[in-house]
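Reading a protein record of the kind used here takes only a little practice. Think of the row as the fold of the chain written in a discrete alphabet. A record is reproduced here so that you can trace the correspondence yourselves:
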Amino acid sequence: MRHLPFALLALGLAACPRTTGEGTEPGDCTDRADNDGDGLFDCEDEGCAGSPDCEEADTDTDTDTDTDTDTDGDTDADGDTDGDTDGDTDADADTDTDVVGDCVVAADGAGDSATVQGCIDAASDGWVIVVEPGTYTENLDFDGRSVTVQSRAGAASTTLDAGGVGSIAHLTQDEEVVLRGFTLVGGYGSSSGSLTFSGGVAFVEGGNLTLQEVRSNGNDVQGSGGVVYLLDGEVALLDSTFAGNRATSGAVLMARQGTEATISGCTFEGNAVHDTGNGGALAIYAADVNVTDCSFSGNNAAYGDAISFWPQGGEDLLISRSTFTGHPGETLYAGLGSSYVGDLEVTNSIFSGEEIPLMVQGPRVALINDIFLGGTGTVVWNSGSNVEILNSIVFATDPGSCLTYGPLTARYSLFMGNAGSWCEGHEPTTADGNVFEDPAFVAWYDDTDPTNDDLHLQAGSPAVDAGSSSATYNDLDGTRNDMGAFGGPQGGWTPRW
């Protein structure tokens, strides 16, 4: 038998793994090695129990060394890696995640550009342009680029001013543009073909424009569309305020044939047209428009203090969960002759103290779960439309009548406290489910301030569960329709005044 040399034997013994324990030598519990070969490393191995390397310096219940109870290694108790407690990933104390932006505009030169146009010229589709506080006097040309332009700090501190020349924005191609968080002023309007001085804030002849969280005040144009002239394309007005704008027609918006507009969460106050124009806030010509959760007060026009609607080919104006007050003439004006064919539907809305809430001629009209309250003139002036009143309340109006030369039906609605007769030859009857009792509002005051009122129904109101029995109109809780603005599937809303 041959014997291995002593030196080779010694080398083999030295190559064998240690089996004496994970943490028997200094540093064993932090060397990221499995010293005892059991598949556990450092402090997760019970062999390191008691080692100073594995003792936490904090007293919380996680395994990092800070004093909170999460495992992100910072000193707050949320799950992100910054040092505040708001739960977002930036280091300020609000709950948003600040937008860095693809291009930053700062008037003092501290950003990527001192002008908004400078960032637009450098932009690619999809860019977000962030504008620091200040006033920027510009007329913007997007040149086919689809971008979002938003302020860093909101409309109260960031203004886009057309400077009394042209429009703030002119869309001529298929751009998709968002302007968010600005005060928009100084619009004088742009021209295109025979159209002159229209669209104080924006002239849209192609593409898609969104105005969101803006304040548009005091724009005055000689043409139409004091804020927006929509010749072609689509526009969205969202969560914004429009006050004191003026134009020949459509002091805020003029929407032309074939266009679409979505309007939600907006306030329209004190807008007016010049002379004999129409649409104190919105003028709609053969366009499809959806208005939701808005308030209209004190606007003025020769036709349609709040809205004028002139359909031609079956277009729809849909209004829901909105309020109307303080208009001196007809609030909504729809059509002018039987050739104006379209649909006007108003649901879950409140007309408070209006002179003539509705004047119609031509379009089909459906008034569903509305309240007409405390007016001083004719509730419905119908010169040829097919009008249906359903699940609504007409209360304390003077004279509270209607004048109709076309079909008008009232079903499952409440009529009470109205002076004079209601629509000679079209009187509502109990046979159609109508009610003639006090609606028992939670609170109503015979004054001109609708903010004092709570027009929800008391539990014992005769209008509770008295609307149409069709499941289509059921309340949110699945029970039969309650008459008035807070019944039906859209009844869960809070009025804006």
The mean pLDDT is 85. The CA atoms of residues 199 and 229 lie 4 Å apart. The longest strand covers residues 202-212. The chain has two helices and 40 strands.
